[in-house]
Amino acid sequence: MTSAQTTTTGEIPFAHPSTSTPLKTWYEIHGTIQPSVGAGHRPLVVLHGGPGIPHDYLSPLVDLADDYSASVIFYDQIGCGRSTHLTEKKNDTEFWTPELFLSELDNLLKHLGIQDDYDILGQSWGGMLGSLHAISQPSGLKNLIIANSPAEMGSWVAAADRLRLELPEDVQEVLTRCEREGTVGSEEYEKAMMVFYDRHVCRVKPLPAELEASFAWLKEDDTVYMTMNGPSEFHVSGTLKAFDIRQDLHKIKVPTLLINGRYDEAQDEVVEPFFQEIEKVKWYRFAESSHTPQLEEREEFMKVVARFLGYQKR
Asked: Which of 59, 60, 105 is nearest to 78 (CA)?
């Protein structure tokens, strides 16, 4: 998606001790970075979900650059999209860890010279990653937006199981059988999976091109997603199955905006721990959205985010 503001793309070298492969993080900046200029102008770093589903589906956030002169920074995390892919590390649970992506985020902030003054918006897995980053209390982080994210995976899986029971019986049968038989890569499973996605991931029909683009990247290389999450949004079998940061949420001290949707797979009980444990937090629930309100209620989403971050219309 193009922006009326200045757009800059690049790649950032990133080293990790467990691989000799030269790694690069691809990024794209909309607007002009103005470090240390305060509220309403500091860079907004956008963390995509998955893990392993690149930023394309979040690209409507360029509206913040166009309408509010904000500096919006997208990047594709290692292993997906336009950044370095490592298909040989599929199922390498010691490599694909939250710590890897925290290190990559720190590397990006330092490379762009914004580590002393920035905001973060993390969506789904990106909100989990952003929360972990905020828990470490980096001095440069000024505001945090957690969109459609779980604080722990037990409630996420429980909510998904409940929502799954509301699907047509023939769809449930296909999902259960394919998972039992290990045929989750089949066209039959994908078709049944999309029935759930149409209700609880994105309710816009046809699917927006931005989301289709992210799904195309995932289909091409599911290394990270399969290792850390599993075959689908509601069948979590990867390393994130044990994710639980509820006991550390009180360490998040920056003003925080919590977002979910009425039909979201991140149901109210999934996101509620953030609201209960973070000291300075506001919660906005989108009435007509599921998991992607930036696509489903785009204009309202931008207004909510802009208001929280103190942006002023151009």
From this structure: 105
In whole angstroms, what is the distance from residue 52 CA to residue 273 CA? Answer: 25
Q: Write out the two tokens for 235.
A: 């069948």
Would you say the pTM of this structure is higher than 0.85? yes
Nearest-angstrom CA–CA distance, 183 and 180: 8
Contacts of 290 (CB under 8 A, 6+ apart): 199, 200, 201, 202, 203, 261, 262, 263, 264, 265, 296
Q: What share of the chain is helix, strand, coil (3-state, %, to 5)?
A: 45, 15, 40
Q: What is the tens place of the pLDDT at every residue in 223-279?
A: 999 999 998 887 888 999 999 999 999 999 999 999 999 999 999 999 999 999 999
Residues 171 and 196: their CA atoms lie apart, in Å, by 9
Is residue 168 exposed (0-12), middle (13-18) or buried (19+ Cβ within 10 Å)?
exposed
CA dist 241 and 239 (Å) reads: 5
Longest dimension (CA), the chain: 56
Give the SS3 label for residue 96: coil
What residues are labeled active site? 124, 264, 291
The arrangement of strands across the sheet holding 141-147 comes to 7-14, 23-30, 72-76, 44-47, 118-123, 141-147, 256-261, 281-286
